[in-house]
Amino acid sequence: MASVPSLEEKVRLLTGETSFTSYATPSLGLEAITFSDGPIGIRGIAEPAPTAAQLPNPSAVAAAWDREFTARLGALIGQEAKRLGVDVVLAPVVNLQRTPVGGRHFEMYSEDPVLTADTMVAFVRAVQAEGVGVCVKHFVGNESETERTEYVARIPEQALREVYLAPFESAVKRAGAWSVMAAYNRVEAGGEIAQATDHGFLINGVLKGEWGFDGVVVSDWLATKTTVEAALGGLDLVMPGPGGPWEQKLLAAVAAGEVPESVIDDKVVRIARLAQRVGKATDAAGELSAGEKGLDTPAEPATRPSDVSALLREAVAQASVVLRNENAMLPLDPGSVASIALIGPNAVEPFVQGGGSAFVNAPYLVTPEDGLREAFPEAELTMHRGVSSRRFAHPIDPELVTTADGEPGYTLELLDADGDLVGDPLVVPASEGWNRGVADDARSAVVTARVTLSTPGAHRVEAGLSGIHTAWFDGELVSESDEFADANVILDSSANHPIGPSTVVEVADGETKVVEIRVECQVVDAAAYGRFVRFELRHDAEAQSDADAELEAAVSAASAADVAIVIVGTNEEVESEGWDRQRLALPGRQDELVARVAAANPRTVVVVNAGEPVILPWLDEVPAVLWWWLPGQEAGHGLADALTGAVEPSGRLPWTLPATEADVPVPDAVPVDGVVEYTEGVHVGYRGWERLGRVPARPFGFGLGYGTWRLGIPIAAEEWSPDDTLPVTVALTNDGERDARGVVQFYLSGPTDVDGDGGWDRPKRWLAGYAAQDVLAGRVVALTLRIPRRAFEVWSVAAQRWVLPSGEYTIRAASDARDPGQTVTIAL
Ligand code: BGC
Known about the structure:
- This is Glycoside hydrolase family 3 C-terminal domain-containing protein.
- Residues 285-305 are annotated as: Disordered.
- Residues 742-817 form the Fibronectin type III-like domain.
- This protein folds into four domains: 7-287, TIM Barrel (Alpha-Beta Barrel); 308-388 and 545-671 and 683-692, Rossmann fold (3-Layer(aba) Sandwich), CATH 3.40.50.1700; 394-541, Jelly Rolls (Sandwich), CATH 2.60.120; 709-827, Immunoglobulin-like.
- It is built from 18 helices and 38 strands.
- A hairpin with a 2-residue loop joins β6 (186-189) and β7.
- α3 runs antiparallel to α11 (308-319), α4 packs parallel to α6 and α11 packs across α17.
- The termini are far apart.
- Mean pLDDT is 94; it is low at 284-298.
């Protein structure tokens, strides 16, 4: 039975109890709420991480342009969350792909606000229908990773409303999201420059005030820096905990009259409401539910997919995008392929998920080799890496590592501030590079390891370290740093890919060589992320092997095979939370590999294994190119299905693929004097390319699939429907010989008034909606899109509201952002 909670209990509830849970508060009838990342699966909060279904990356989901498809994946996320005891999933990311170098581009849906919002709505409704909450993130302006906890996002007001806030507005009004995450960065908006966690105008004013959000605003992890400002600005829950700027300090601020108790109460009510929604409130919540609104009536829960693997397999194939297909080289008929040369660094080591908080421990991985062997059982298959694309060596084989006494593992001694031993020396398995949970009085560590190498050839041995250190290999000083590490090494992800010394050791036939490693380093205190010693041993056996010979071997395998399948792409050194990319080129000599293989075999298919755009200089010179995303655990099956056509790869790009770096309208994400200026305004993504008259390698919305399509002239209704939408109908004919999936995109153009009296700006063309549909060969279907009034409106800065500029509008039904398509013009 709930009693009256004390102020202490209420304030305590407003900071996490642990990294991913809130406090249970019996006086309020509340159990702890468990939060967990993230967009591609449930990371879970147990250590070691439990296994969980691993989806393709979010841009791949958006590439289906299909709400029903997204909803099926959302339902799976909700069901996985329940299975793993997670109440609120820290997803989806609805920041926009403003620049192709953005570090978390792969975690976002699209460069377009409508595709982002629609995909998000389908996902959120499906997750929440399972009784699991979402946390839509990162509110707002977190389009860059560089200096992400510091920079000010300066977004012109019209663009802020129409582009960057729009998906969050849909999350509240259309999807009824139960929580929203306040971003790391600062934002200039509404005359206020403040940390996103403290932003009174954005949180209290827009999100909770204008839009009526009744859920919880959760801080990004360690993002909150203030007590009073954040409390008054509208933030409800500081994560992670314990610690941080609230707790006792907030209690003191209430006592001092700086924060009214009613502000605390409102946050408590919101957290209680969230607990109630996710089934973590016992009996307190009757009156709280008065805040429920009809808008967030969840969709009907989906039935659990009987076969998770089958769903993920289908998702990989369906989301893949055919970028080129000369002479209908694809799909491949397994009966006509006697031999396959499978080539490329990402064929050998597929990159199935991006780095950072979105990381999921999948139960298994179907590799491209597995998938192709199943799909082409009669074909002879050879595999060649061709070229290396990595900067770092791989995690070492623990078998190679012993202590000085010959025990498997390395020795870790922890020292206090005086250099005295804390506890006994430990022997740690070589696979364990983090050494978490280090005692509070330990300040530094001495690590010693012996690496024994006996395979003939050149070996690269390296150690990844975080923070202040001195390192010796075989008694020789190899690295020194006096750069102190704290929680920032988590926030900038450098602790995930720690740099450090490396050496190359030549081992002759019959010889054994030993590398003695000694490291003296700091203990990293990463606040609520804990205290650890980072020591990652890495090793590559084929260091400095003859790179040219490796490439030649791949090329001759290609020329000897019926079909060459080259899988190129990025890897987790390239695409991760915590940093932005510097370049858009494929790492290493992959472009050369593709060109050489394609020259050697006229039946070459190139598969691109990346989440974010990369420059493909050979795109129009090879016969077939398939974009395969970061496909998750069913990678190889999905790939094989797409290549054979067992499932049509009917994806369409949710972003623009540049031909050269120089063309990119927003080429970087680097703050200048601490400010990221969104100077392009509303011209994000393809809108910017259009405005500048630049032609990309493939436009937004592009994807060939395996169909052949014809569009009729769209017919627009004469009047608005009662639900404030304008129905537009178009006939879509499948002129091909296969049943296929068509995706029709509707773009608008309308009266522009750049810096005119209306005080608003307009893209040349903008997406208003879309429809995807399976169509039998030779058949025609009528597709109707109900275009919402908002798609025609602009945010008027002068009037501080949405207005519908009158005039002529062209509605274009098209297959991508540059396709002239078929149009109808209406007057509004
Ligand atoms: C990320 C969030 C994530 C959180 C918790 C942060 O670093 O920005 O997206 O949900 O960590 O893991």
